[in-house]
Amino acid sequence: MRYVLGCLLAGLLFASVALASAEGAAELYGKSCKGCHGADGTKVVMGMTRPLKGLPVDEVKAALVGYKAGTYGGEKKAMMERVVKPLTDAEVDALAAHVAGL
Ligand code: HEC
Fold first, then answer.
1. Which residues have C-beta atoms less than 6 Å from ligand 1?
2. Where are the alpha helices (DSSP H) in the chain?
3. Which pTM value belongs to this model?
4. d(CA 19, ligand 1 centre) in Å
5. ∠ CA(31), CA(24), CA(41), 5° rounding?
6. CA of residue 10 to ligand 1 center, whole Å
7. CA distance 41 to 34
8. Closest ligand 1 atom, CA of 95?
9. Mean pLDDT of 12-25
10. How far away, in angstroms, is 81 Cα from ligand 1 center?
11. Angle between helices 89-100 and 57-69 (to 10 degrees)
12. CA-to-CA distance for 47 and 20, rounded, in angstroms?
């Protein structure tokens, strides 16, 4: 009985994590990115970024991973570093997919 319950619980947990990554990415974008890049990703931040909308997923991911590692970016990269440092790799993946689909 305990085993069955354990499996059930593990299953539920897994399902909610999977759900969280798709929905969570939209929420995370709204919370952490929209203010600068715009709700639909068309804003050019401080006249220097490319609009996020229309960027291929690989480029978004490379930029986010690079900002996190401190290996990508221009003059204002510290702004992005602060935003992406606390994100997990899974969140970066989910966000890149979300941004590419804007
Ligand atoms: C405080 C404002 C701000 C927030 C919040 C912010 N960004 Fe940025 N973003 C910038 C600036 C400024 C740059 C350009 C930095 C540089 O490299 O000099 C940039 C650059 C980028 C780039 C690279 C664009 C290019 O032209 O190469 C991507 C991709 C990006 N941001 C995605 C995101 C995502 C996803 C989020 C949310 C997790 C986010 N940003 C949150 C200000 C912000």
1. 32-33, 35-37, 45-46, 48-50, 52, 60, 63-64, 73-77, 79-80, 83-84, 95, 99
2. 2-32, 34-37, 57-69, 77-84, 89-100
3. 0.86
4. 25
5. 50
6. 36
7. 7
8. 35
9. 63
10. 9
11. 140
12. 33
Structure tokens at 102: 């804007």
Max distance between CA atoms of the chain, in angstroms, equals: 61
Query: What whole-number distance in Å separates Cα of residue 8 and Cα of residue 4?
Result: 6
Domains and CATH numbers, the chain: 25-100 (1.10.760.10)
What is the per-residue pLDDT across 56-88, written as a single tens digit (0 to 9) for each? 999 999 999 999 999 999 999 999 999 999 999
With a CB cutoff of 8 Å and minimum separation 6, the contacts of 83 are: 32, 33, 67
C-alpha dihedral (10, 11, 16, 17), degrees to nearest 10: 60
